[in-house]
Amino acid sequence: SVADSAAELKQEILRILQESGAEKVNIVAHSKGGLDSRYAISKLGLEDKVASLTTINTPHRGCEFADVLLKTLPKGLIHFVADKYNKLFHKLGDVKPDFLAGVTDLTACACATFNEEVKDSPQVYYQSIMSCMSSVQSAGFPLNLGYLLSKKYEGANDGLVSVNSAKWGTFKGVISTKHQGISHGDIIDLTRRNIKGFNVNEFYVKLLEELKNKGF
Q1: Angle made by CA atoms 158, 43, 64, in degrees to the nearest 5
Q2: What residues pair up with 157 in beta bridges, in sequence order?
Q3: Can you tell me the distance from the alpha carbon of 143 to that of 184, in angstroms, rounded to the nearest whole number?
Q4: Region of residue 181 (left: phi > 0; alpha: psi -120 to 50; beta: else)
Q5: pLDDT in tens, 194-213
């Protein structure tokens, strides 16, 4: 869940500040990590420890197709899938994985409530960036399926998150390429593939350089 992930994030940030001697951190958060970060800043007392939050492909307004799937799919199937993911995450090191709680927190309904309760801190600079797929061929399963579902309900998207959902604070725009676009996984180099017109390393170097030039 967002709350549990935010609590872990807080402890990690406090550890980094203690070890480094820095006064504040700049958070660059991908996907649900943006919601975790907003919660940690506003609800867990980190606003004086964070200079800026940059969210990348974060579903600030949720994913409408997630609401639809949770309402229409058989409960047995939902729990079967959740159990498979929980076992995978446990092998990867998560002590108490809860896939279903995480997905539920990403629904449009849950995010609407989240945005009412979790207010931005005036002490923190918020900005957001989004990438977008060009077509269903831009990524493999499950992002190609996610692209079709998200496009039906919300329009342009990265295979999971819609462009409109990702806008928060100062919106830096949409990153894409002419032919295949950039998926939810591509923006963090999860797929480890070369994309013509997009250099993932340069993207993050430029991002950090811009934050530094702003005084953060």
Answers
A1: 30
A2: 162
A3: 8
A4: left
A5: 899 999 999 999 999 999 99
